[in-house]
Amino acid sequence: MSLWTAAEAGAATRGELRGDWSVNGVSIDTRTIRPGDLFVALKAARDGHEFVAQALDKGAGAALVDHVPEGVAPDAPLLIVPDVLEALGDLGRAARARMGGKVVAVTGSVGKTSTKEMLRVVLSHQARTHVAEASYNNHWGVPLTLARMPADTELAVIEIGMNHPGEIAPLARLARPHVAMITTVAAAHLEAFEDLAGIAREKASIFEGLEPGGVAVVNGDLDTSPILIDTALARGARVITFGEAAGNHHRLTGIGFSDDTTVAEARAWRTQVLYKVGAAGRHFAVNALGVLAVAWALGLDRALAAADLSRWSPPAGRGMREVLLLDRVEEGLSFELIDDAFNANPTSMAAALEVLAAATPRDNVGRHSHGRRVAVLGEMLELGPDEAAMHLGLADLETMSAIDVVHCVGQLMRPLYEALPEAQRGRYAAKAESLAGKAARLVDAGDVVLVKGSKGSKVSLVVDAMRKLGHPAAQS
């Protein structure tokens, strides 16, 4: 069964059809396109029309375009529309309309992608599930995810993000979720908003897309939680809160960390729940509790959902942990790397440092007699006028005292570096490239190393350099 026939796609977009074709997928990138995909010629850094001929040569079943590109035969399989992005939205809208299952939408300043992946693990074990890839959560990512959704999907998970006011509501109305979850509200993209309340109102606009009788799953621990709850109630939603505070419908009551696992106890609607996730971190445990609330709202088997959470672990750049051998023969000469270099704001930085503080280094295996907890911290971007104070404020975190060495990257991190005790200061670099070039001097056998920063800080270069120092340890 094809994903889209020419007739279906033409009816959805009201476009001009060339040829009678069918496609099994939708792609916007010729580097990853598969035979039988519909290639969507979006205009971004490059105009996708420049790659239509290449896409067809690679076996694309058809292309969605606003004109016949140069080098493409007039009788090639095409769908010609006035605006490609709008047509992609039309495809997404049609896919949502023909789908008879239920949709979950997820947003939040921190943790929406990891939560989406937890939902993938939990929901796919109980129904035919379609989930957004990577962080496809913007004005083209959401319609692309919907356009890729098979008609027989029973459950779908759509991630919705934003950088500026007014972005979430249109995407939520496109997705039309039955359940909408907000992981948290934090100082991310604050430069585009007056304050946290403004961010909360933007996040809460996800409820504008809720289907009648929909459910809002909301973090109840936040100063801005009343904004989220009141907005959901005003939209006629049923509200389920989760978190650590008393009064939440789903409440975390106990938590324990090992180096790569979090075990949590909770009460959910007066029922005791025990679950674990494959990563250390209080924030992971709290969001997993929100996932259980979503499962409850969908009417799924909660015991099975709680058991399946243990099969989730974070992807690269989002807290993934790996052991790297510094010597192929001497297995003890290794260090542990926590790769959290995809994004950062004060809330996620505090959570990552808590994970590092709870890690257990190994003594008497490296140049230093004691294994160290090492943090490589890059700038937190888009925080607005108080960004300097937010960076400096990291020095006051209780967990910071448990970190042995702190290396800092970027001008915004300079105040933090200077505020640290001299014994705790590692290296400072204005650019990540400079610190990456000194990777061998930053790490020792027995260390646990956290690399954390906004994507724009480029601390992922330090992660790459550290990976090149060693060899992945054998996995059991």
Helix content: 25-40%
Write down the CATH class of the largest domain: Alpha Beta
* Number of E-type strands: 23
Give the CATH architecture of the largest domain: 3-Layer(aba) Sandwich
Major β-sheet, in short?
Answer: 9 strands, mixed
Q: What's the mean pLDDT score?
A: 93
CATH superfamily of the largest domain: Mur-like, catalytic domain
Class per helix and strand makeup: alpha/beta
How are the strands ordered across the major sheet?
9-10-8-11-12-13-14-15-16
Report how far the terminal alpha carbons are from each other.
39 Å
Strand content: 15-25%
How is the CATH topology of the largest domain named? UDP-N-acetylmuramoyl-L-alanine:D-glutamate ligase
Radius of gyration: 24 Å
Low-confidence stretches: none
Q: What is the count of DSSP helices, taking H or I runs of 4+ residues?
A: 16
Overall structural domain count: 3
* Overall outline: globular
Describe the fold and architecture.
The protein is α/β, with parallel strands linked by helices and 476 residues long. The protein has 3 domains: 4-82, MurE/MurF, N-terminal domain (Udp-n-acetylmuramoylalanyl-d-glutamate--2,6- Diaminopimelate Ligase, Chain: A, domain 1), CATH 3.40.1390; 99-311, 3-Layer(aba) Sandwich (UDP-N-acetylmuramoyl-L-alanine:D-glutamate ligase), CATH 3.40.1190; 320-472, Protein-Tyrosine Phosphatase, Chain A. It has helices spanning 6-13, 52-57, 84-98, 112-124, 141-147, 168-175, 196-204, 225-234, 282-297, 302-308, 346-358, 387-393, 414-419, 432-436, 439-442, 460-469; strands at 4-5, 16-18, 22-23, 25-27, 37-40, 62-65, 78-80, 102-107, 129-131, 155-159, 179-182, 215-219, 238-243, 250-257, 262-268, 271-277, 320-325, 334-340, 373-377, 405-409, 425-429, 448-452, 471-472. It has a 9-stranded mixed beta sheet with strand order 9-10-8-11-12-13-14-15-16, sandwiched between helices. Strands 21-20-19-22-18-17-23 form a 7-stranded mixed beta sheet, sandwiched between helices. A 5-stranded mixed beta sheet has the order 2-7-6-5-4. Strand 14 (250-257) and strand 15 form a beta hairpin. The radius of gyration is 24 Å and the shape is globular. The mean pLDDT is 93.
